[in-house]
Amino acid sequence: MHPVVSGSGRRRTVLGVVLAVLAGLLMLPAGTAASAAPPPPVPWQDKVSSSLRSGLVAGKTSDFMVRFADRADLSKAATIKDWKERGEYGSATGGRSS
Hints:
Elements: H1 7-26, H2 50-57, H3 83-93
């Protein structure tokens, strides 16, 4: 048989549970919430080879390729038969990514 708990006893029990949960949350490591944040961006110097950087700093010229993280949606361009229109469509949408 369950003991009868008065109204004030229930309030104390609920208050105790709430305080226990809050105390448990306070004991979590400080970095727990920050771990969901995205990593910081990589500096551009880490993305360019050292030989290319040193050559450009020395005034030399070089060919290199730039790869962008975002890409424009040019799927509609394949349906455009006229090359001039296709080029205009690519130029108009090339700066926007979806």
